[in-house]
């Protein structure tokens, strides 16, 4: 029986519907490339929702807090890039890479072996990864062409990993909100689990609500908002004072 950690977080019915729609995954296409390269690796759900006023949700979305709002996807190319990023940190077996992605995202995204192992074989075929065989197990290492591929996509990889870290923290924040217990805080008032300050969370909520309220803005108003956001982005990404 497949271990639960290897299952994607798609509801069972959704997985059946998806498999029916796409048909069985073939290991190779006519060019010898893996079908994974042409498909999307499924990731679980969307941001967690909570109370309509957003008090428990650090991103300020409403909802009933019962689960994932929408399904998200991780493309085959992004999965390959993340695997290369993990291999740069440590040579690993496939199951170790699966566990690493699950740990990074706090369980939000744990790809199935059926996605990871074909991706690793594809990376090996491209020369991006090498394989060390030990009995029936394979340990994958990052090859120099793979490092060059990473160097060309550092910003993209960093954003993907940071997104998973954010989701992991958000899930911890939400669990704490649902528990109803007071948050433990650090010396500067930050939540000891996520590291987030209440005012940081409140500012995120306020921005998202403000943008939702301007959904029907005129083109002139949209340009004004865009200019404000551009200035804010420049300040956020600029050097810390």
UniProtKB/TrEMBL annotation:
> Record's Pfam families?
PadR
Q: Which domain of life is it from?
A: Bacteria
Where does the Transcription regulator PadR N-terminal domain start and stop, copy by copy?
A: 83-151
Ranges where the record places region Disordered: 1-68
The record, for InterPro entries, names: Tscrpt_reg_PadR_N (IPR005149), WH-like_DNA-bd_sf (IPR036388), WH_DNA-bd_sf (IPR036390)
Record protein name field: Helix-turn-helix transcriptional regulator
In which organism is this protein found?
Answer: Achromobacter denitrificans
């Amino acid at each position: 029986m497949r271990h639960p950690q290897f299952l994607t977080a798609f509801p069972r019915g959704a997985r059946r519907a998806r498999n029916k729609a796409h048909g069985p995954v073939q290991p190779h296409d006519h060019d010898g490339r893996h079908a994974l390269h042409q498909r999307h690796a499924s990731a679980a759900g969307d941001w967690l929702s909570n109370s309509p006023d957003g008090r428990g949700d650090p991103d300020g979305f409403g909802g009933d807090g019962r689960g994932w709002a929408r399904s998200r996807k991780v493309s085959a190319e992004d999965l390959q890039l993340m695997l290369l990023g993990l291999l740069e940190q440590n040579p690993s077996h496939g199951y170790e890479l699966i566990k690493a992605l699950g740990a990074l995202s706090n369980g939000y995204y744990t790809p199935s072996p059926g996605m990871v192992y074909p991706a690793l074989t594809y990376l090996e075929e491209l020369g991006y990864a090498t394989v060390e065989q030990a009995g029936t197990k394979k340990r994958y290492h990052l090859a120099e062409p793979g490092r060059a591929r990473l160097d060309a996509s550092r910003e993209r990889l960093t954003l993907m990993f940071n997104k998973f870290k954010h989701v992991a923290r958000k899930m911890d924040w939400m669990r704490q909100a649902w528990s109803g217990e007071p948050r433990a805080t650090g010396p500067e008032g930050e939540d000891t689990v996520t590291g987030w300050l209440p005012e940081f969370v409140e500012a995120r909520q306020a921005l998202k609500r403000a943008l939702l309220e301007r959904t029907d803005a005129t083109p002139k108003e949209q340009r004004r908002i865009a200019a404000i956001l551009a200035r804010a982005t420049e300040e956020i990404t600029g050097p810390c004072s």
